From TrEMBL:
Gene3D superfamilies: 1.20.1050.10, Glutaredoxin. The keyword Oxidoreductase applies. This is Disulfide-bond oxidoreductase YfcG. The keyword Glycoprotein does not apply. Its EC number is 1.8.4.-. Belongs to the GST superfamily. PROSITE patterns: GST_CTER, GST_NTER. Residues 84-199 form the GST C-terminal domain. The gene is yfcG_3. GO terms for molecular function: oxidoreductase activity.
Length: 199
């Protein structure tokens, strides 16, 4: 059985948890409290030398890290990853966008709020607003004309972007400005075997 090492409030961990659940794959969960440095212990660094979560143990002693790489591994040859060459590239395009243009601003802001550091990082939070809203604007433009991000169906591109977008309000971003994103969020929540980030 797969074992997921995670910090459950993390959107990156939620991506993997959601996909495993929607694939109907049984897995065990092990909570790693990153606030207490548990991802930096010698024991954990054997699993991921980069000291980050999530990590998926796919076989005894065999570990895979980086949330989008884990999703790629799990989704190949399933309905969550297209067979068409261009559509596969589009999935990867949006996953790279999520990691480089979206997550550093929206996810980081949420994390600072969740750990009670919003006041301390007030200036940094302000600096993340413009690029965060820019990323949401790119998504809004795409979703105004498309139901999903790749191949006109729900894929890991949607899971990757949904994880932090649907809780962007927890990081100080106003999603009421993005009606197409809001409609897409509801569409994702209506997918079979959907679970919330708190499950």
């Amino acid at each position: 059985m797969f074992k997921l090492y995670e910090y459950s409030p993390s959107g990156n961990c939620y991506k993997v948890r959601l996909l495993l659940t929607q694939l109907n794959i049984a897995f065990d969960r092990t909570e790693i409290n990153i606030l207490e440095g548990k991802s930096r212990t010698p024991e954990f660094l054997v699993k991921n030398p980069n000291g980050r979560i999530p990590v998926l143990e796919i076989a005894p002693g065999k570990f895979l890290f980086e949330s989008n790489a884990i999703m790629f591994f799990l989704s190949e040859e399933t309905e969550f990853f297209p067979t068409d060459k261009l559509e596969r590239a589009q999935v990867m395009q949006w996953l790279f966008f999520e990691q480089y243009s979206h997550e550093p601003f929206i996810a980081t802001s949420r994390f600072w709020y969740l750990i009670g550091k919003a006041e301390e990082y007030q200036e940094a939070l302000k600096q993340k607003q413009a690029p965060g809203y820019a990323a949401l604007g790119v998504m809004e433009q795409h979703l105004a004309e498309n139901e999903f991000f790749a191949g006109d169906r729900y894929t890991i591109a949607d899971i990757g972007l949904f994880a932090y977008t649907h809780v962007a309000g927890e990081g100080g971003f106003d999603l009421t400005r993005f009606p197409a994103i809001q409609t897409w969020i509801d569409r994702v929540k209506n997918q079979p075997r959907y679970i919330s980030i708190t499950q």
